[in-house]
Amino acid sequence: MSEPAPIDRGKVQRVVDELLGEAGASFLRTGWSPDYLALLQELLLLRTRPAEWQDIVPEYSLIVSTVARKIAEAGGEPHRHALLRDHGFDDVLSGVVRVIDRLSSEQEVAAAYDTLLESAAVRQGPRAADVFTPPSVRAAMLAVLSQGTRPDSLYDPYCRSGELLVDAAALLGPGATVHGAAMRADDVRSSYVNLAVHSVPATVGLRTEFPEPTALGRFGLVLANPPFSMKARGSIAFADGRWPFGPPPARNLDLAWIQHVVLSLADGGRGAVVMPHGAAFRSGRERDIRAALVESGAIDCLISLPGGLFAATSIPVMIWVLRPPQRTERRGVLMVDASELGTRTPRGRRLAAPAVAAIAAAYRAWHADGALTEISACPRTDELRAADYQLVPARYLDSIAPHATVGVDELQRRLSALEHRATQADRRLTEVLKGWTR
């Protein structure tokens, strides 16, 4: 399978549809099965290894035990697949192997792996939040980060299934060092398999607690889609002095991830992090952290994306584009509002290629000669101070286009933001009133 071959996208889609349809019906008869997804990932990895695969294909009568042995030899954990302990599944599993055997090149296997993750995310719905970053979100992140000097090192501190590392490694090309970390053993294995299927040498470590604010290393490119509103656990410390931009609230580590990424950047490095909108406007400690980030010049650009891009939730998200703190004169923070650029498809909403190109063009125009586009603005640092470091892009585009038409999705996003702020104010008022009654 080492010879390059054109990818038959239609065949790849049919293979995945069959794996999640008729061929996988026995595994999915009681609903979605994470174990079945993990088994398919392991089988696709074995499909890229001709010698191991040829040991499996002729042994249909003993296929369960053969697959279990090959998964173990490849570094996987066959015991976690309950279905592999049932030799009554020989006939069923042989059908799955026959379908995967139709993939005729390493490129087709890699394409099938990508399609499988995307299809699985759609099928899982809300549970997909733990496993997958949508392709159009990844494309938007990399469209911005691909501009300028190409870095030679890459890091994802919460690598889920490794999809960000795979896409970024393809951008960087051979020779780049690739590192990832995950907080669950299943994610470590899933990332390793994904990277191996795409022929990306990498190291992925298991981390049981939030990373220390001191960087584990310095990298030219850092990407992350961390869990939103994660609460502190374990021995993480929040004392002043350990967080250069201010200690994050223990109830919400969104801006702790932002700090970790900034601290992980090498000189001249760039980072991109997916964040909920709330991280850009919440008050208290988070406001103070945003202030410190803005004043240091660590925030290069903020990009609002449409809602509905994630299978797990319809809420809109933002991309924070980060850099090491700047010692030179700063021009402000570039704001890009792409919240109206989503395209509806049968499988959900996505950013089509023209939308990704518009985001990249807005970023490129500003950094090339300070030009703005229809979807961008660049408030100066003093304007951000006057706005109390509220960093939602629409706020600043409204100021330069007061008569622009506002769509329903934008109104819903603004209403959601206002409702969230009202909830936060109610909670704060309740705390204050409790203090008065003591």
Automatic annotation (TrEMBL):
Highest taxon of the source?
Bacteria
Q: Which residues form a coiled coil?
A: none
> Which Pfam families did the record assign?
N6_Mtase
The GO terms this record gives for MF are: DNA binding; N-methyltransferase activity
| Ranges of residues in domain DNA methylase adenine-specific | 108-399
Tell me which Gene3D superfamilies the record gives.
Vaccinia Virus protein VP39
Entries under InterPro entries matching the protein: DNA_methylase_A-5, SAM-dependent_MTases_sf, Type-I_RE_MTase_Subunit
For this protein, the record's PANTHER family field holds:
TYPE I RESTRICTION ENZYME HINDI METHYLASE SUBUNIT, TYPE I RESTRICTION ENZYME HINDVIIP M PROTEIN-RELATED
Name of the protein in question: DNA methylase adenine-specific domain-containing protein
Q: Which organism is it from?
A: Kitasatospora griseola (Streptomyces griseolosporeus)
